[in-house]
Amino acid sequence: MNYLEKPMVFLRKFSLLFLFVSTPIWLLAQISRQPDYSNALKAKAILDQAIDYSGLGSDSLNMVISAKGVMHESGHFSAPEERIDVPETYTLSIFSSIENYYIDGQINFRGRNLTRQVYVKQDSIFYRDHFGRGVSREALIRSIPVYNEILALHPALILNEARRSLLSLRYLGKVGAVALLSFSTNQTSFTLHILPNGQVKQVSYLASHNYYGDNVHRYDYLDYKPIAGYNLPTRFNEYEFGGLRKDLTFTYDFAPTLTLPVNQVCPGCSLVPKRKNANITVKNLGGDLYSVDLNAYNNRSLFLVAKNGVTVFEAPVSYKAGRDVIEAVNQTTGGKPITQLMVTHHHPDHAGGLRAFAEQGATIITTKGNVKFFSQLVNYPHQLEGRTSDKQLKPSFITVDSAQTFTTNTEEPFTLYFIGDTQHTNEYLVAYFPKQKILFQGDLCFFQLNGESAASAREQAIGRLIERKKLAVERIYSSWPLRGFKEFGTAEDLKRKLELATK
């Protein structure tokens, strides 16, 4: 190489390195310049400040709110526009570990004590109004006025609903020092009024009344005080048709028993665990090997527990799904660190959760052709899925291009096998666990609940691997799909599929 060629080689290498490092940063910059995205991030930052100020983002929030005051009611009275002051009390029970909550209320109307109960259970609502006209049970989507009123009763409810509706969250601007945010749920757009310190001052939404026409429902949260480590309103005003409808005071109980009052609208209804946990199934597959079925995503991961850490196999779908797998691992192992992540191939339903594991410091085990792409993928923005850190990550990689057995810190070694072109991807990894006699592959083999089909090119590749390596396989697990397919296939199941392919 002459003296002219050396600088050119250096420049080519430097250019490739610059492109490799700058691509995710460039992509983030392009996305950040989009008005909708920058607006959503600004809105999310204000919402996060409001949640932090109140303390209501805690995963261990259990409380009963007791309300007492006056309802200035109008309607079927002696004269137009007449309002009657009606004493009202109610309790609102909120538990962080369950999906449902219960309101038990009472008014004193012209000497009569009238009760009202509302019970929200996942996607249904049960309620009885003050005049005891029987129990109504409807989907939330068909009970918009009742559900909207419930959400606005307290910042704990409205902030949680806004957090669940991040894709619709927008920053509307300011009125004086008050920031305005908007989000949509259940066919209604809510506007949050948030002070510079994060205090939720007001919530409002549009509604239409059969008699009075268009209307803005407005709810004010007043007289915030520090209570048991939270910042909470102790007064509540509701405005309807431009006039004050309710003026209530709040008191709090932070040590309630996890039981509902006598449930008069849904007798026998039990507390319902939050759906996030209900959609995850963890199962021991023998020894230190476990499966995590993400039922909502129709995907599965495995994880192997070792002395000093955990190896996870597959990072399905999304950042949020990755966090769900991490939570399941933590709950099962008592918080052991995730040190390695093996990914079968680069498709999003198998690698979409990479960022969540990279944040844990896990080394990514993959094939050589994926390293550049995965280095970019872990730095794509995911704030609308709940990610809070923008830190640029540089994960460590182990690449496998033939067969490699992993024995470090585990009494149950496993072997990864490289498969070339499967007519699905150019590079693919398959994991074999000799102790359990389990073969784990992402989506090369499919074992239907009903009926059999001839082996595809993908399945034939697995058959050749088992035969060539003389693997003692009893169970074959897939990462995708779960619905409509067996939990696992057997060696005999695969053998029959291969035989059908020869006919």
Sheet with most strands: 13 strands, antiparallel
Low-confidence stretches: 6-28, 272-276
- N/C terminus separation: 59 Å
Radius of gyration: 29 Å
The helix count comes to 11
Q: What share of the residues lie within helices?
A: 10-25%
- What general form does the structure show? elongated
Q: Work out the number of β strands.
A: 25
The mean pLDDT is 83
Give the strand content.
Answer: 35-45%
Strand arrangement across the biggest beta sheet: 6-5-4-3-2-1-13-12-11-10-9-8-7
Structural class by sheet pairing and helices:
alpha+beta
Give me the oligomer status: single chain
Protein model, in words:
With 503 residues, the protein is an alpha+beta fold. It contains eleven helices and 25 strands. Strands 6-5-4-3-2-1-13-12-11-10-9-8-7 form a 13-stranded antiparallel sheet, with helices on one face. A hairpin with a 5-residue loop joins strand 2 (83-95) and strand 3. Helix 1 (5-32) packs parallel to helix 9 and helix 2 (35-54) packs antiparallel against helix 4.
